[in-house]
Amino acid sequence: MTEQQRKAPYDLPDVSGLSIGILGGTGDQGKGLARRFALAGHRVTIGSRKAERAQAAADDLTGGQDGGLPVSGAENPAAAGGSDVVIVAVPWEGHKATLESLRAELAGKIVVDCVNPLGFEKGKGAFALPVEEGSAAEQAAAVLPGSRVIAAFHHVSAKLLLDPDVDGMELDVLVLGDDREATDLVQALAGRIPGMRGVYGGRLHNAHQIEALTANLISINRRYKAHAGLRVTDV
């Protein structure tokens, strides 16, 4: 499929000037997204419960081959309050409590939830956990009624995001939400990472199966020793 064929079916907004905060940015997924967005020219703030831990993660990204990237570290409230868009990449176990503690800082913002509620059992592998609200993204929306919650970036390999030898992320990012302007913006953000494309995937109440599909991808990756992603055809 050519790049022309893979363009979104409508114009997306210019998001090049937006700053991005990443809650849970000290983990591999959050740190990898921070790296890719910083490489794309966005100012990125990694958030953590402890400012020194967040800054250490930022220092890891701004040293060596990635020197000079616009990445800094801060406590979660500062990372959330000082960014235009906030990505939630915290462990599932602390998801609800973290968002409850940041309700004021996240009010009015686009909040992108990429958390996958998964369990692991020896001999059975990864499996989706039940969530009272339906999904992690719906839990975020319930906890943050003043925010514009979007689900996205669930199926992106942290290893590839962090790999300096990988120039492009050849995959599609499914973007779900109830706010058309916000889903368009997040689709455009996904497209800032070379090779990546944001594709609208439905309303937020469809987020459960997107989160759960991550368990299948983990099984694929283990069987084939790969870092599989998704491609949507004929769009």
**CATH class placement:** Alpha Beta
- Strand order of the biggest β-sheet: 3-2-1-4-5-8
Quote the distance from N terminus to C terminus: 10 Å
CATH topology: Rossmann fold
Give the overall shape, derived from the CA principal axes: globular
CATH superfamily: NAD(P)-binding Rossmann-like Domain
What is the alpha-carbon Rg in Å? 17 Å
Corresponding CATH architecture? 3-Layer(aba) Sandwich
Q: Could you list the spans in which at least 5 consecutive residues all have pLDDT below 50?
A: none
Helix segment count?
9
Largest sheet: 6 strands, parallel
Structural class: alpha/beta
Q: Can you give the helix content as a percent range?
A: 25-40%
Number of strands: 10
Fraction in beta strands: 15-25%
**Element order: H for helix, E for strand:** EHEHEHEHHEEEHEHEHEH
Average residue pLDDT: 94
Count of structural domains:
1
